[in-house]
Amino acid sequence: MQILFNIFDGVIGALGGWILNTIWGEIKCMQESDTMLADKVAKIEILVAGQYCKREDMERLSTAIFAKLDRIEDKLDAKVDK
User: Fold this and answer.
1) Three-class DSSP category at 54
2) What number of CA atoms fall less than 13 Å from residue 18's CA on the CB side?
3) Which of 34, 62, 66, 68 lies in the 20 to 30 Å Cα band around 19?
4) Is the pLDDT of residue 48 over 80?
């Protein structure tokens, strides 16, 4: 009876060790994958931050839009006066 218990205990221990080793390997793989993903996200953030509209471009655009709106308003006022 003791021999069967020892064999059973050995098999269970081997299976448990194999399962724990597999889980440990998967955790390491996920940590490496997480690190690579974090690096990719950081690169994307840098890329996106470099593509914002510059203040000078925005001011130039707003000046042009307001000039067009002023011309439209002047034309509308001229039409009303007739």
Assistant:
1) coil
2) 6
3) 34
4) no
